[in-house]
Design a protein that fits this description.
With about 500 residues, this protein is α/β, with parallel strands linked by helices. It has two domains: about 270 residues, 3-Layer(aba) Sandwich (Aldehyde Dehydrogenase, Chain A, domain 1), CATH 3.40.605.10; about 180 residues, Aldehyde Dehydrogenase, Chain A, domain 2, CATH 3.40.309. Helix content is about 40%, strand content about 20%. The chain contains 16 helices and 23 strands. A hairpin with a 2-residue loop joins strand 6 and strand 7. Helix 3 packs across helix 4 and helix 4 packs parallel to helix 6. The longest helix is centred in the first third of the chain and has 19 residues. The site of nicotinamide-adenine-dinucleotide (NAD) has 29 residues, from helix 8 and helix 9.
Length: about 500
Amino acid sequence: MSKRITHWVGGKPWTGPAHRRGEVFDPALGTVTAHVDLASVEEVDAAVAVAAAAFTTWRSSTLAKRTQVLFDFRTILQHRRDELAAVITAEHGKVLDDAAGEIARGLEVVEYACGLSAQLKGGFSESVSTNVDVTAIRQPVGVCAVITPFNFPAMVPLWFTPIAIACGNSVVLKPSEKVPSAARLLAECWAEAGLPDGVFNVVNGDAVAVNRLLEHPEVAAVSFVGSTPVARHVYETGTRNGKRVQALGGAKNHMVVLPDADLEGAADAAVSAGFGSAGERCMAVSVIVAVDSVGDALVPRITERMAALRYGDGRRRCDMGPLVTRAHRDRVASYLDAGVEAGAKLVVDGRQGRPDGEDDGFWLGPSLFDEVPTESSIYRDEIFGPVLSIVRVPTFDAALDLVNASPYGNGAALFTEHGGLARRFQNEVQAGMVGINVPIPVPAAAYSFGGWKASLFGDTHAYGDEGVRFYTRGKVVTSRWPQRSAPRAGVDLSFPGHG
Ligand code: NAD
């Protein structure tokens, strides 16, 4: 009998029967390793009810208590990070070092949340009117749904949940059904850290669970990360049901290389950001925009580095692992034919390599296209795999126009030693996260993560200050305490001024 991965509700594993189940694969082996429960509407309702009940007391917990839980959570997560990395590699396929990297970036947000009492300070104005003071406070919003994609099984849940919890909310996390085990391990860490039962819950599932969370009257806020069509659906449905929603979508990140750039560094960056995690990163570089003749110098440097990459089982010290499912591998591989048909030059064909892994793994080696037409599907679509495209343009302005014409606006990078053009790029580029000689500009935890255009629906980015604003709402209290010695103002029907 295969392992069963079930929900986590009220501080313990769910004990009810599973009415629907999904298969969980080890992508490097190509075999089913577990079955995950797919929640029904009733199961989602049960988790939300538990979270709503827990919120009534957690919202009033002291800042000292919350801080203690956050610090303990951090310690426990640090302690279990190898175990967590192994779980991520076994279900996602990314190599162990990369899994450790995503945990480290998630821990940064936990550390930010450890200091959240400073962010939750309110405001106070004395004597805005005679004997009248004003106090501004921020309060938690209630039950927060966090819906996450397959590609960062630990980091993306950690972008949201520590901040939501530190702000006094309760959480129902719906992780990707492809990679459910990391969420379960995080739940165990919260419980071990002394978080009261019901403040952090996990429901596993698919669109049924997501759609119920979007409609449930007791869910106050929804944080979503995933593909653009689903992000749009989540935003529209959630807001129609009166919730605050931040929905981060897909990406097609461009890296512009100018002729004056450090070309060795640019080639390193292109290969690292193009093929890290097999291109299954929302911040992956998928298009190199080579300005003027720089493409001629870049192609040999990139191909030389690609030839040195080892891909295979993430537990065998390879550089790059398999794709997450067989269907996704086949979809990504189909773009190699589509690119050739569209007239692009296939410089490296990832179907021809040999992986260091079992035959049935979901393998596809790194591929490189040059001279990619911008009307082709390999340029327009988010491929989300190890396929790097080079588009050649004559000038910096043409490069900037190309980046800005993209419907996506997650990240964009520029490689140059020209300060003036770098400054123009940073000012004019239509993207939420910009790298200057940095290929994957994921903001540090005190800032916020989010794209523009079809890469984010809503107006609030993830974590940092914007995360705190999302998970709290403002209240302003205007107060007057009667002064026995002062005369009463008496009845006055005019609109109160601040005299
Ligand atoms: P996905 O959109 O298929 O799934 C994301 C979540 O939505 C999962 O929990 C899934 O169960 C749920 N879901 C899927 N289809 C649904 C539907 N029809 N209705 C309701 N819920 C549904 O995304 P994925 O394949 O898991 O992840 C890859 C995508 O996520 C890529 O497009 C990538 O760019 C994006 N991503 C974006 C960011 C970002 O910060 N912008 C970060 C990571 C990943």
